[in-house]
Write a structure and sequence with these properties.
With 726 residues, the protein is mainly β. The protein is built from 4 helices and 66 strands. Strand 1, helix 2 and strand 2 (64-68) form a beta-alpha-beta unit. Residues 166-262 form the Right handed beta helix domain.
Length: 726
C-alpha cells in the first residue's frame, strides 16, 4: 500500500509540472517556484532541465516575465533565455536582490536560446538577480557566467547581429575568479548594462564586447578582474551606433591573466612580452565611436607590485623572471577611431604602472586580407589622472592618424590634470608624452602636470626606428600646458611642425599700426585684446572665413613695457585661450654709430620696403626678408655733418607708412667738460675696450669702464668714468 501511495504522489507532482509547461503560451508572467526548487543543491540537474524545458515552450511573439522568488537556485548546465523574455528576481527593502542563480559547474551560465534553425533573437532582460558559480566549482577557462553571443569563424568578420535589445540591470554577478569573462556580449545591438555589481572575473574581463553596437554600460561597480575591467575587443560601434561607458567604478583589474599569459608562453618556449591591459580597454581593430565618460578607475597599492608578478616569481624563481612584465594601464585606446574620453578619474598605485593612457593601432587578418585601424579623432578632455609609484610612460602613443575627412582631427589632450608622485622610470628620454611610432598630429592644450620627479621633455619622439622606419611626429600643437604652474614647452625628436597658438592665430603687435588680423577656430567665438589684464578692444569676427580684425590700434599699442595679451572666449564667454603678445616698433631704427659699415633693424607686416633719406632725399633702399632690413656700406653714406637722416617704411603700393629720425652717434660719447670738474663720465660702443685721456698726444689718465651698463636707447652702449683729478 505504501508503495502505491508513493507512486501516485510522484505522478501527481509531474502532472503539476506538465500543466505549468502547457499553460506557458497563455501566460505573461510565470512564477518559477512551481518549476525549479530553491535551496537544494542536489536538484541542480533537475532545475536546469526544467528551466530549459520551459524556455523551449515559450512563444517568442508574446513577452513573458519569468519571476524567480527569493531563494538560492542551483543549476548544473547553461540556462537558455529566448526572445521576448524578462527574468526578474525579488528585491528587499534596500533594493538588493534576494533571488540567486548559482551554477555548480563553470559552464556558460546564462546564454541566448535561439529558435529552431535560427541564429537571431531579440528583447531579453535580466533584472534583480544574483548570479554566480559555487565556490567549489571546477574551473574551466571557457566558462563565462553571462554569455550573450554566438560562435563564429575567426577570419569571417561578416557584419551581422544575433541579438537585438538586451538589458542587464540591478544584478550581482560574481564569477568567483573562475572561467573567462563575467559578462560577454558578442554580435549584440541595442544593449544596456546598468546598476550592476560585476566582480571576480576569471582570466578575462569584467565586461567584454565584440561585434556589438549601440551599447550603454552605465553606473556599474566592477572589481577584482582577471584582465580588463571593460574591454571592447574588435568590431564594436559605428558612426550611428556608439559604445557609451559612463559613470562606472572599476577597481583592480589585471589580477590573473598576466600569470596565465606568462605560463603559457614560457612553457611553450615562446619569448614573453609585456602585458599592460587596462581598466577600460579598446583592443581593436575597427572599433568606432566610443564615449568614455565620468568613470572612476583605481588599481594597485603603494609600494606593492602587481599580483601576477609576485605569483610568477614565486612559481618560476627570480632567475627565470628577474624583471616585472605585468603592468597596470589606466585607459587603452587601440584600433579605435572617433573616441571621446572625458570627466574620468584614473588613480594608479604601486611599482608596476605602465601608462595612464596608451594609444596604438591594431590589425587582424580576415578572409580578404589584413584589417588595420590606426587611432584617429581621439579626444581626451578634462580627465584627472593620478599615478603614485613607478611610471614607465605617463602617456604613450603609436601610429596616431588623422581622420580622412578632417585632417585636423588627430589625437588631442585638452585640459587634463596629471598628478605624479613617485618615480618616472627612464623611458629613454624622461618624457611625459612619448611618440613611439609615426604619428600625424598631436594636440596638447591646457593640460596641467603636477610632479616632483624628473621630467626632461613634455613631448619626445623616439629616435629608435619602428618597423624599419624613422619615427616622426608630423605636427605638434602645444598651447598653455603647465608643469608645477610654469609654462611647459620642452620637446625633442623628429617633429615636423610645432604650433604654440592653435585656437587663435597670433603675431607680434606693432606700434603705429591701425589693423591687426588673424584666423581663429572653434570653440573660440570672440577675441579680445588685453593691456595689463584689462580688456581694451574686442575684435570684429567673420564667422564664414573665421577671421578676426582689430581696428584703431595705433593709439592703443605703445611699446612702454605694458603687458599685452590676446584672449579667446567661447559662446558662454568662458576663456578658451590666452596668448602673451610681443610689442615691437613698426619700424625699429637703432642709432647709427659713425664708422659702422652694416646697419640692421626690424619692421612690421604693413611695411614692404625700407629706405634711407638724407635731407628728405632717398639715398639707399634696404635689403628686406619679411622681418629684418639691412643697409650695407653705411660708412660712405652717413657723415656727422649736421644733415637730417631718416628711415622711411613704405607699403606694397609704395605709400609712406612711417618715418623715423635716424640718430647718428659717435663711437665714443664725449660730453662737454667744465673747468674745475673733478670727475668726467661718458659712453662707448661695443668695439671699444680702453678709454684714455690724452694731452698733447700723450695719455695722462685711463678711464674705469663698466662693461655691464646698458643704455635702453642705444644697443650695446657702455659707460666709462675717469676718476678724480690729482
Amino acid at each position: 500500500m505504501k508503495k502505491l501511495l508513493f507512486t501516485l504522489l510522484i505522478v501527481a507532482l509531474c502532472s503539476v509540472y506538465v500543466k505549468e509547461v502547457q499553460a506557458v503560451s497563455e501566460a505573461k508572467t510565470i512564477d518559477m517556484s512551481g518549476i525549479v526548487t530553491a535551496n537544494n543543491r542536489g536538484l541542480a540537474d533537475q532545475n536546469a532541465s526544467r528551466w530549459n524545458d520551459l524556455m523551449r515552450q515559450l512563444d517568442s511573439t508574446q513577452h513573458t516575465t519569468i519571476y524567480v522568488p527569493k531563494g538560492v537556485y542551483y543549476f548544473s548546465q547553461t540556462l537558455g533565455i529566448p526572445s521576448n523574455v524578462t527574468v526578474t528576481g525579488e528585491k528587499n527593502a534596500e533594493g538588493v536582490s534576494e533571488s540567486s542563480l548559482v551554477f555548480t559547474q563553470v559552464v556558460r551560465g546564462i546564454a541566448t536560446r535561439f529558435p529552431l534553425n535560427e541564429m537571431k533573437a531579440h528583447t531579453i532582460s535580466l533584472e534583480n538577480l544574483q548570479i554566480s558559480y559555487t565556490d567549489d566549482a571546477s574551473d574551466e577557462r571557457s566558462g563565462t557566467l553571462i554569455d550573450f553571443g554566438a560562435g563564429y569563424e575567426e577570419k569571417n568578420y561578416e557584419d551581422y547581429q544575433v541579438l537585438d535589445t538586451l538589458n542587464i540591470e540591478n544584478c550581482v554577478i560574481d564569477a568567483k575568479k573562475k572561467g573567462n569573462s563575467t559578462v560577454y556580449l558578442g554580435r549584440v545591438t541595442n544593449a544596456t548594462i546598468t546598476h550592476n555589481i560585476i566582480k571576480n572575473s576569471g582570466l578575462q574581463n569584467g565586461i567584454g564586447l565584440e561585434f556589438s553596437k549601440n551599447v550603454r554600460i552605465y553606473d556599474n561597480d566592477l572589481s577584482d578582474l582577471g584582465r580588463s575591467g571593460i574591454q571592447m575587443y574588435k568590431f564594436n560601434g559605428s558612426k550611428a551606433e556608439p559604445i557609451v561607458i559612463e559613470k562606472n567604478r572599476i577597481t583592480n583589474w589585471m589580477q590573473r591573466y598576466g600569470y596565465a599569459h606568462f605560463k603559457t608562453k614560457y612553457e611553450a618556449g615562446i619569448p614573453v612580452d609585456v602585458m599592460n591591459d587596462s581598466g577600460i580597454d579598446s583592443y581593436g581593430p575597427q572599433n568606432e565611436n566610443f564615449i568614455i565618460k565620468d568613470n572612476v578607475l583605481t588599481a594597485g597599492q603603494v609600494n606593492s607590485e602587481n599580483p601576477n608578478n609576485t605569483k610568477i616569481r614565486m612559481d618560476y624563481s627570480e632567475k627565470v623572471y628577474p624583471e616585472n612584465m605585468i603592468f597596470y594601464t589606466g585607459i587603452r585606446l587601440c584600433g579605435v577611431t572617433d573616441a571621446l574620453v572625458t570627466g574620468n578619474q584614473v588613480d594608479l598605485k604601486g611599482r608596476d604602472i605602465f601608462t595612464m593612457v596608451y594609444i596604438n593601432s591594431r590589425e587582424k587578418e580576415d578572409s580578404t586580407g589584413i584589417i588595420s585601424t590606426k587611432p584617429s579623432n581621439i579626444s581626451i578632455d578634462q580627465n584627472k589622472f593620478q599615478a603614485e609609484g613607478n611610471v614607465r610612460y605617463p602617456v604613450r602613443i603609436f601610429e596616431g592618424d588623422v581622420a580622412a575627412n578632417d585632417k585636423e582631427k588627430g589625437v588631442s589632450f585638452t585640459k587634463n590634470d596629471f598628478l605624479m608622485e613617485g618615480k618616472l622610470v627612464n623611458n629613454g628620454y624622461y618624457s611625459f608624452f612619448t611618440i613611439s611610432s609615426a604619428t600625424k598630429r598631436l594636440l596638447l592644450i591646457g593640460n596641467t602636470l603636477t610632479m616632483g620627479t624628473r621630467m626632461d621633455h613634455l613631448v619626445s619622439v623616439s629616435d629608435v626606428a619602428y618597423n624599419g622606419t624613422q619615427v616622426k611626429l608630423d605636427e605638434l600643437v602645444a598651447v598653455n600646458n603647465t608643469r608645477n604652474g610654469a609654462l611647459e614647452n620642452t620637446v625633442r625628436g623628429n617633429i615636423g611642425m610645432t604650433d604654440y597658438a592653435y585656437f587663435v592665430q597670433d603675431k607680434p603687435l606693432f606700434t603705429n599700426t591701425n589693423l591687426y588680423t588673424g584666423q581663429y577656430r572653434e570653440p573660440v567665438w570672440k577675441i579680445r585684446l588685453l593691456k595689463n589684464s584689462q580688456v581694451v578692444k574686442q575684435a570684429d569676427t567673420d564667422v564664414v572665413t573665421k577671421t578676426y580684425t582689430f581696428k584703431g590700434l595705433d593709439t592703443l599699442v605703445v611699446n612702454d613695457g605694458s603687458k599685452y595679451e590676446l584672449v579667446g572666449v567661447n559662446e558662454s564667454y568662458q576663456e578658451v585661450i590666452r596668448i602673451p603678445l610681443t610689442v615691437r616698433s613698426l619700424l625699429d631704427v637703432p642709432a647709427y654709430i659713425i664708422g659702422t659699415n652694416e646697419y640692421t633693424g626690424t619692421y612690421g607686416s604693413t611695411i614692404t620696403r625700407v629706405r634711407l633719406f638724407k635731407d628728405n632725399v632717398v639715398i639707399k633702399q634696404a635689403d628686406t626678408d619679411g622681418e629684418n632690413y639691412t643697409l650695407k656700406e653705411m660708412r660712405s653714406l652717413i657723415q656727422n655733418d649736421g644733415s637730417k637722416y631718416e628711415m622711411v617704411g613704405l607699403d606694397k603700393n609704395f605709400a609712406e607708412v612711417i618715418r623715423v629720425p635716424l640718430e647718428v652717434k659717435s663711437v665714443l660719447d664725449v660730453p662737454e667738460y667744465t673747468v674745475g670738474q673733478k670727475e668726467f663720465s661718458g659712453g662707448y660702443r661695443d668695439n671699444i675696450r680702453v678709454v684714455r685721456l690724452m694731452k698733447d698726444g700723450k695719455a695722462v689718465k685711463q678711464a674705469d669702464i663698466d662693461a655691464t651698463t646698458q643704455k635702453l636707447y642705444i644697443k650695446g652702449i657702455r659707460e666709462y668714468h675717469i676718476g678724480r683729478w690729482s
